[in-house]
Amino acid sequence: MSMPKIIALDLDGTLLDSRKNFPMEFPEWVRSHPETAFVLASGRQIYALLDQFSEIRDQLWYIAENGACVYHAGEFLCVDSMRPENSLKVLDEFEGVPGCEPLVCGLESAYVRDCGGQAKEESTKYYTHIEYNDDLRSCALKDRILKIAIFVNDFRAEEVYTSLKPRNDGLMTLLSGDSWIDIANASVGKGAALRAIQGILGVSNEETAAFGDYLNDMSLFEAAGESYAMANAHPELKYAAKHITRYTNDENGVMEALKEMENENT
User: Which letter, b or e, does each residue of 98-131 get, where b requires 16 or more Cβ atoms within 10 Å of its Cβ?
Assistant: First the structure.
């Protein structure tokens, strides 16, 4: 295989280490490989991504909010927002559910109750444009809502996720981490967003590689000819991947795999 024309990278658990830092050599790697489009594919807010990667922000492509929007060089290229009545319905479903705190993720800002504790602390890790408001229903009506993220206390997201009923209302429920469940349009996904970028750039599935660690990266793998599950990845994602990295995210696993990939093509 020649070097991919697109390399899509999940962030948490993949490119970022446990302290949420990207590899020091990553910016220079991007600069020195202009023939490759590097895509950051994350459940995070676009503004948080732009802030964290400010050094090379305009050289990267972004899939934010688990695929609800695609952004590049100062422009939103794709936005798949929820209908207002669906946003309100999801808020009603989780109203008063113990251990669950909704975060309304809009195009302009994220909105959460000023509840303190784990929910507030975790929200600020992934969202830099954030508004604290006890009336989340009004927030859902004043912005284009990309998803409703449910923070689940005590790392119980998978337990809560498996207890939820299947949806048949044009929405989907996605397990996005050990503390997060995302609900968005059924058309939303990292894979769909990656295919949109492939269409814009005229790049095929076979010319695309993707790296991930969790179940919300499954559709990303389906859109990439070469899929790399991290050594620390969820077992189901490892099973679906074409490759498994030799190193974890805390061992610079992505960069080591990129170097191996380049060496194989020189």
Answer: eebbbbbbbbebbbbbeeeebbbebbeebbbebe
